[in-house]
Write a structure and sequence with these properties.
- By secondary structure, the chain is an alpha/beta fold.
- It is built from seven helices and twelve strands.
- The strands form two sheets. Strands 3-2-1-4-5-12 form a six-stranded parallel β-sheet, with helices on both faces. A six-stranded parallel β-sheet has the order 6-11-10-7-8-9.
- Strand 1, helix 1 and strand 2 form a beta-alpha-beta unit.
- The protein is elongated.
- The chain starts with a strand and ends with a helix.
């Protein structure tokens, strides 16, 4: 029986779910690739590799050497560099690519959202929106806010961030999922008057948006970067698994 070899670019809940689904398929051999930016990542079932490929050139060479039949990019919606490399490398190697993108968050009744095209734009908008800021944009983008010396920041990340940080910042290291009641209590305890976040989508960290709505707090939402032109997308792991199995049947 022939085997379909699949590379999953992962690090997300969708990537782990896809790895679990494909592990149950006898005709599919999946390798999950993690960037290695988290010291203690949640490993999916099956074969894994940690670390980069050396850009699009290195990834294209790896796809050819490993005789990969399909690539599924299930990275974070803000991992724009990885997605661009995946699109370029897949095209060069002649390997079909699918991108898994969970639906983004949408404002509802009672929400007070302000959009920003980038972290830098969000940082520029902070002084006009709040003085005690709950910052949940991830540890790698904190440099954009380091020049703000007047607002106070509660910075939440999975792992301790390195410098530079805003001068008036308290760091809270926690991994989701979070509850609405827990987020509400956290915002009240720290007297938060502005939530700054990225449009990651999904349920794991959405509780902060519900809590902000309940408290009447404004939200500064960083919009997602655009996808490379022409890539095919699906919203979840189940749809991605279906795509892989269709490819395996050809």
């Amino acid at each position: 029986m022939s085997v379909t070899r699949v590379l999953i670019l992962g690090g997300t809940a969708e990537a782990r779910a896809l790895a679990r689904l494909l592990a149950e398929e006898p005709g599919v051999e999946a390798v999950s690739s993690l960037a290695g930016r988290v010291a203690d990542p949640l490993l999916p079932p099956g074969r894994s590799r940690v670390g980069g490929f050396g850009g699009a050139d290195g990834l294209a060479a790896w796809l050819e050497e490993e005789r990969v039949d399909a690539v599924v990019d299930a990275t974070h919606p803000f991992a724009a560099r990885i997605t661009a490399s995946a699109a370029s490398a897949s095209a060069r190697a002649g390997v079909p690519l699918l991108v898994v993108r969970r639906p983004g968050w949408e404002p509802g009744a009672g929400d007070r959202w302000t959009g920003a095209a980038s972290l830098e734009e969000a940082a520029g908008a902070v002084p006009g929106l709040g003085e005690r800021v709950f910052l949940t944009t991830g540890r790698q983008g904190l440099a954009a806010f380091a020049g703000l010396d007047r607002p106070w920041f509660l910075v939440r990340t999975v792992e301790p961030p390195g410098p530079p940080l805003p001068p008036r910042a308290v760091v809270l290291c926690e991994r989701g999922p979070f509850t609405v009641e827990g987020e509400r209590e956290l915002m009240l305890r720290h007297r938060i008057d502005l939530l700054v976040t990225k449009d990651s989508g999904g349920a794991m960290t959405a509780a902060k948006l519900v809590a902000a709505r309940a408290l009447g707090l404004p939200v500064l939402m960083v919009r997602r970067p655009p996808l490379p032109e022409g890539v095919r997308t699906v919203p979840d792991a189940a749809a991605a698994a279906g795509w892989v199995l269709e490819a395996a049947a050809r």
